[in-house]
């Protein structure tokens, strides 16, 4: 069962109804079924995950109600029809009811951020039954010592599954070799290192244990959705890159929700294929709002066309735009490098993003607005051809369309000196020499004034 969206209202930081939109799996479109949840700490990401899990066995606390009518949690099917609703029995009640209900196997499995599991097995519990228990436990309180060992025990019984699962883990951890169900006083999972040393999986690092737990969920042939909370924990960046590639492959056939603080897990490629990004942002101390990116076409000028030949636009730095609050957009990546020293010690949360062309500033501001980024600023050059005045026209459009953001314009035609490329083009004079060395103070003109304007905007 796939869903299009989940709505939450009158619960904790979500006083007004907010919608979490889901990616829909499409065969042959890698990453299409991924739903991203990003946002700062305490923005409401965990509350969203709890809302997806919550059921009629839960009692709502008085402090969790935001209005007299009380919380409401709704799941909508592929046609946006209401499929499941959890709400209070009555306005003055603290007891929940589910109406309509859905079968438990159509709800999301939850892999919370605490993923440690013990090596010892517990009876003959089948892997499917173990995975089902994750739908029953509160994701905020889960200790996550679910019987992962039983899942591995179940896999080991089938030689073909054993080889397939071992190969799956090796795609993320190449040194992962052999494992088996061993026995002392109890059955336990034994791991053989690349040096041939055998030991309990309890002695594996947290990152390896976490990967095995996540892949155990993916490996089981199921169609229900999965929620993975902070998959990046205890993982080296290279392992994060490998893991998201695997997750994206499985997301062609099932919905996978990823709540993350890591730009390694967010991919423009997957968003282009249908993945949806939801950014949870604090509006004030008590309320949060969800901003959604689900129409890639609105922003493809930032990543496609001639810009596609610029790999840094798709690299880890550019993806940090999803995780920042204060963004300074400049025309090129060299502007970022030259200005970084001027702004790094100014006690502001500065993130520079080269949009590669003044016509892309409008798309950049639109992306920032759609992400709920409170403060964004554009730093634009003066026209190289005053008769055309293209930069002035762009500035005018930006100031008219994005009144809450700021546009600052240099008095010079470039950040650094550049010789004329062709005749009758003129030499460009900037604030830095052609080699990127800042000029003497008396040669800098409006440089410090414009820098102060940017700093004041972000600080106030």
TrEMBL record:
CDD domains per the UniProt record, alphabetical: ABC_ATPase
Residue intervals of the ATPase AAA-type core domain: 34-267
Gene3D superfamilies: P-loop containing nucleotide triphosphate hydrolases
Family annotation (InterPro entries): ATPase_AAA_core, Bact_Antivir_Def_Nuclease, P-loop_NTPase
Molecular function terms, GO-annotated: ATP binding; ATP hydrolysis activity
PANTHER family tied to this protein: ATP/GTP PHOSPHATASE, EXCINUCLEASE ATPASE SUBUNIT
Full protein name: ATPase AAA-type core domain-containing protein
Species this chain originates from: Legionella maceachernii
Lineage per the UniProt record: Bacteria, Pseudomonadati, Pseudomonadota, Gammaproteobacteria, Legionellales
């Amino acid at each position: 069962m796939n869903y299009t969206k989940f709505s939450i209202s009158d619960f904790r930081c979500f006083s007004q109804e907010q919608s979490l939109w889901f990616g829909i799996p499409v065969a042959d479109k890698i990453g299409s079924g991924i739903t991203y949840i990003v946002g700062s700490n305490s923005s409401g990401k965990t509350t969203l995950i709890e809302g997806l899990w919550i059921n009629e066995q839960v009692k709502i606390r008085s402090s969790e109600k935001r209005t007299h009518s009380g919380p409401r949690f709704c799941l909508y099917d592929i046609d946006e029809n209401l499929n499941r609703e959890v709400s209070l029995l009555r306005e003055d009640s603290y007891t929940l009811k589910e109406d309509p209900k859905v079968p438990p196997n159509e709800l999301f499995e939850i892999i919370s951020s605490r993923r440690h599991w013990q090596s010892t097995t517990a009876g003959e519990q089948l892997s499917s039954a173990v995975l089902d228990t994750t739908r029953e436990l509160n994701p905020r309180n889960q200790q996550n010592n679910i019987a992962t060992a039983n899942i591995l025990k179940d896999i080991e019984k089938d030689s073909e599954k054993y080889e397939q699962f071992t190969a799956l883990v090796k795609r993320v951890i190449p040194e992962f070799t052999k494992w088996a169900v061993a026995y002392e006083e109890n059955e336990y999972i034994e791991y053989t290192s690349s040096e041939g040393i055998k030991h309990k999986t309890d002695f594996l690092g947290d990152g390896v244990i976490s990967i095995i737990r996540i892949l155990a969920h993916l490996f089981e042939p199921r169609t229900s959705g999965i929620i993975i909370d902070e998959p990046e924990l205890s993982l080296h960046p290279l392992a994060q890159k490998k893991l998201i590639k695997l997750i994206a492959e499985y997301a062609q056939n099932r919905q996978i929700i990823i709540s993350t603080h890591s730009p390694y897990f967010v991919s423009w490629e997957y968003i282009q294929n249908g993945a949806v990004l939801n950014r949870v942002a604090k509006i004030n101390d008590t309320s949060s709002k969800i901003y959604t990116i689900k129409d890639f076409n609105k922003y493809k000028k930032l990543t496609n066309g001639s810009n596609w030949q610029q790999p840094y636009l798709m690299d880890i730095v550019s993806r940090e735009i999803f995780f920042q609050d204060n963004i300074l957009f400049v025309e090129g990546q060299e502007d970022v490098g030259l200005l970084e020293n001027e702004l790094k010690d100014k006690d502001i949360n500065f993130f520079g993003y080269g949009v590669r062309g003044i016509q892309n500033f409008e798309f950049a501001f639109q992306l920032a607005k759609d992400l709920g980024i409170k403060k964004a600023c554009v730093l634009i050059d003066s026209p190289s051809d005053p008769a055309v005045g293209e930069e002035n026209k762009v500035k005018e459009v930006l100031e008219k369309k994005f009144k809450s953001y700021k546009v600052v314009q240099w008095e010079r035609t470039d950040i650094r000196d550049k010789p004329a490329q062709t005749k009758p083009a003129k030499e460009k004079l900037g604030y830095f020499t052609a080699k990127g060395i800042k000029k003497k103070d008396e040669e800098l003109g409006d440089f410090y004034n414009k820098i102060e304007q940017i700093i004041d905007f972000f600080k106030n």
